[in-house]
Amino acid sequence: MRKTYEIRRYRNSSAPDFIKALKLYSENIEPEYRTDTNEIIFWADNFGRRFEDSFFIVGFYLNGILIGFSELAYFKEERFVEVDYLVIDRRYRKNNTFHEFVDMIAGLLSEENIVYDYVICEVGCYFENREPTESSKTLIRLLKMSHFGIIKCAYQVPRLGKKNYESEMRAILMIHAKGDITQIKKETYLMILNALYYKYYQRWYNEFFNDAENKEYKILLDSFFEKIKKIVESKEFIEINGYQNILPLNPTDFSEVKAKKGVKALAFILVFVIAGLVLGSAAIFIRNKFELSIENQTGILSLSVLAASLAVSFFLGNKSNLPGRIIEKLLDKL
Fold first, then answer.
1. 163 membership: H or E segment, kind and range
2. Separation between Cα atoms, residue 88 and residue 58, nearest integer Å
3. Measured in whole angstroms, how far is the alpha carbon of residue 81 from the centre of its chain?
4. Distance CA 105, CA 270 (A)
5. Given this model, what pLDDT does residue 279 score?
6. Taking a C-beta distance cutoff of 8 angstroms, is the pair 57, 10 a contact?
7. Could you give the count of Cα atoms lying within 13 Å of 98 in the half-sphere of its Cβ?
8. Could you give the CA distance from residue 59 to residue 8 in angstroms, rounded to a whole number?
9. Into how many domains does the chain fold?
10. Domain carrying residue 313
11. pTM of the entire structure?
12. Contacts of 60 by beta carbon, 8 Å cutoff, 6+ apart
């Protein structure tokens, strides 16, 4: 049987299949990632009335059967789209379904005349000292296959609602642009964060929190934003796709990543020790051959280290932050 995919935008909560789509969403997403469906219903009816930015709720269909749900926000001034949820019924998570869904969302944005520079997707990953969930690892892999890149910088998901404390977690922001990008400016990243925290999360919960709760939530958002500002203040650019080995080929075996990191660390220590022995031996040979003083030996050693660093830097394509980038490149080459 031929597969026919379709995407439909629900413009309000009275649209056909809207409640059915919310049911699919609730049944196919973990509790820590779930937004109260009553809140989604409210904003489906009111977001466009209150703000210049846009809010989309869409259903994804296969041969007329509802199989997926997505929630998106478009920030007009900042010119980016936030994909808040991408949910597919468990029974249909196979073959090319995910990529069909992503392609159809892109087509919908074009039909709606949405002008954007970036598409951003949050992937809530893990708490401190814990690895990402299986669903997060799978989503990251699928998004990378759909030409999303990982923004190499800290990000924190704010709490969803009053009592869902488990939803407050470390996360990864993934980004898609119409052209290939390997970095974004620090200011661009902070602009994206500012919109997410204050024009999305804060706006969303202002309607459902009382004054004291809103004040507390604002303090929480401010603490996240200021912490990330401090992390990036010395940077000019933030790399994209920075975590080269964030996922193993088999997403169910995360221990493989940990093992590779350990091997890399040991290999780097070994290379460092060997280099030290070689340079030390060279210094002793030069001292005995040319009867040099201690000061001259120190100068030769310094020049040798500098020359070796420059050679490695040139070979690995380094452009800035010489010591740190050499280490990072060496580890990635192993």
1. none
2. 12
3. 14
4. 49
5. 61
6. yes
7. 17
8. 5
9. 2
10. 255-333
11. 0.70
12. 5, 6, 7, 66, 67, 68, 69, 70, 88, 101, 104
